[in-house]
Structures are given as structure tokens and as C-alpha cells.
Amino acid sequence: MKNLANEYKVTQVNPQKGFRIHLLVFVLTVPVLWAVWFLTDKTHLWPLWQSSAWAVGLLFHYLGVYVFKNRKTN
Question: Does residue 4 sit within a domain?
Fold first, then answer.
């Protein structure tokens, strides 16, 4: 019987490419969020929370790819 785990190849994603994609999606999406806020009810500044939370995630992604890249886990 064939081992099913051997049928699928696991591809390694380039971490720098993954960060660049994350940054591109951030740069393209955040202005859309602010435009939606600007064109709708402006009573609550909700894009500020969305943008800042996503920016923190982007910061940690950057740190993981470029700053702490030499640390290996067992």
C-alpha cells in the first residue's frame, strides 16, 4: 500500500516573498478601509483600530523574517 504522505510535496515559501506580499496587501487595503469610512458614517474612527492592529501584525512579520531569521527552533 502506498503511503499517502509521500504523494504530496511540501513546498517551502520564501519568507521575504511572504513578507512582501503581506506588505503589498496592507498598502492596497488600508486606503480602501479609510475610503469606506470617509464615504460612510464618520462617527466612530474604526479604520484606526483596523490599521494599527494590522500594522502591529506586519511589524511582527517583519521582525520574524528579517531580524530573528537566524534563530531556529527544534
Answer: no
Residue 74 domain-assigned (yes or no): no
Residue 57 placed within a domain:
yes
CA-based nearest residue to 64, from 1, 11, 15: 15
**Spatial contact of 38 and 30, defined as CB atoms under 8 Å apart:** no
* Phi-psi label, residue 12: left if phi above 0, alpha if psi -120 to 50, beta otherwise: beta
- Report yes or no on 73 lying in a domain: no
pTM: 0.75
User: 5-27: per-residue pLDDT in tens?
Assistant: 556 666 677 899 999 999 999 99
C-alpha cell at 61: 512579520
* Amino acid of residue 18: G
* Total structural domains within the chain: 1
